[in-house]
Amino acid sequence: MCHSSFKVVDGWELNGQFFPGTEDHPKPAEKRFAEYCGENRPWKTQITSQNVGLLEFRIPIKGEGFTVSIEFRPNPKPSYFRYSGKVRSIFSDQDLESYDLRAWRIELQAHRDQTKIIIISTPEQHHYIKASFSEL
What we know:
This protein is mainly beta. It is built from no helices and 12 strands.
């Protein structure tokens, strides 16, 4: 069993569904999701094929972890991202009900012992997301 895990999604996942859907994305779903556990970690650069990416991780032991560096690169065909639901913003203490994103931002969602980071560059910004991973 893996105690620490790390997932990378090209796009985002909600309740087991990937967004954008397969008809709206250049890659099939199985090529948009990678899970790493134990020694199998992504100590390399990964680039999304759109302007939204999801990092999900579980770090149960204090002192373990990783570093993520994010870079935004030009994207001539961005996706439009609109979220409806509750998200606790790392930029304020308020729940956000529904919003349109106007500039890139990083949202952090903590659920029990798992944490999700949604990295978004909006269509107006026209960016891919490049994430580089390294050990602490």
